[in-house]
Amino acid sequence: MNRAPLVLLYLNVLIIATCGLVYELLAGTLASYLLGDSVTQFSLVIGIYLSAMGVGAWLSGFVVNRVARCFIEVELCVALLGGLSAPLLFATFAWAGVFRLVLYGLVFAIGTLVGLELPLLMRLLKEQLDFEDLVSRVLTFDYIGALLASLLFPMFLVPHLGLVRTSLLCGLINAAVGLWGTYLLRPLLVHRVLAGLRGRACLVIGILAIAFIKADTLTMLAEERVLGDPIIHAESTMYQRIVLTRNAKGFQLYLNGHLQFNSVDEYRYHEALVHPVLAPMKLPRHVLVLGGGDGLAVREILKYPTIESVTLVDIDPGMTSLADRFSPLMELSQNSLRDPRVTVINEDAFVWTGTASEKKFDAAIIDFPDPGSFAIGKLYTKRFYSMLRQRLTSDARISVQCTSPLVAPKSYWCIVGTMESAGFHVRPYHAPVPSFGEWGFVLASTSPMETTMQLSPEVAGSLRYLTDEIINNLFDLPPDLKWIPADINQLNNQALVHYYDQEWGSWR
Prior knowledge:
56% of the residues lie in helices and 14% in strands. It is α/β, with parallel strands linked by helices and 508 residues long.
């Protein structure tokens, strides 16, 4: 082989490593989206994939003859299995036992094949380089490929292509490498097998290309099977997968496969989140909303005539723009994000809260997703609540949604205790929301709070759920929701994420 094929083979190493890690990241992401328990799922996927690569490396020792042909065959198998991995996982999720079998089976199979490829490729290169140069160069390109995958996956592939098209694109690249290999390694291949190898490569490319074109249809069919209702809108942003479904009674919003609200009963949740904070305040003027990019909490805030400004901080511009352009959501939120008093800021709430500012808020409504990952868990830490105190007035009030105290009691009381450790006076409360069950909140203040509340007449007349009697009864916790000990959620340990994974994982 001359120098040009040698360089091209190094490029093959780069592609193999990049696509292999992308398949691993896809499997871990889908497992955490669909099964929850992100820490456990990613740990299992990484462990199985790496051990399978070791199995593949061991199996390569049994390939004695026809190394070039075996390399191309393995490359085509990786292309087909890896490319179709995301559609297969989506399609089988409705059957829990089958899904786990397919998930771990695919991860093991792809890891074995990738582990088989690199030793075979090194054997193809061994006569071109000294052993020391061969190992160092191949491993260098292998690690560069891993870096490329770790950067491209979250920053470009998933936000712009989605999970299904990402896997299919990587499959197409692997298949193209296989077809390319029939020309690159032609001197090492028996002439009669070339046509068969090229035919199989073209067949794999054709299957994956058709699937890539139909990816949106495949994704929507799979998500409808998982979510149970027809999808009326779906998009992938840099931060999450946003899906809206509709049934005979209303529509539902899902983020990364997790229900955020149902239009039929969301008013119960948002009234319980907002009004225990604002009702006791005489003149609420400046309110901060963290999360809540759907605009529904803002809708409730704007019912108070004294409000002068609402600052909404949500990391995802895709979510806040959807609330301002998707007609059913605009109607449900009463166009709240278009109100001139509302300012939308698309930044990480943790970073934004820690930024120095002279403006102080009379109240804060915290409507983050449940703490199912460390990225979200940091928004429930003592450090975050301590930073938030600096953005509030001396008599400000806060409400936080805190997951279900019935399903996840340690998670709930961890949040309550963490806020208390940050210097807040706290009052835990709950509300029944049919789509979620018994849901938990906490009311907090920088100063002691009164024990009874009364809604103003102009606000009470606009509410569908809360009355003076009901809003006070929210703070009466039944025996099965009473306090239990839980650790404080610190930035360096994130005990809350572990509690949440364990409690919701066992419930599911």
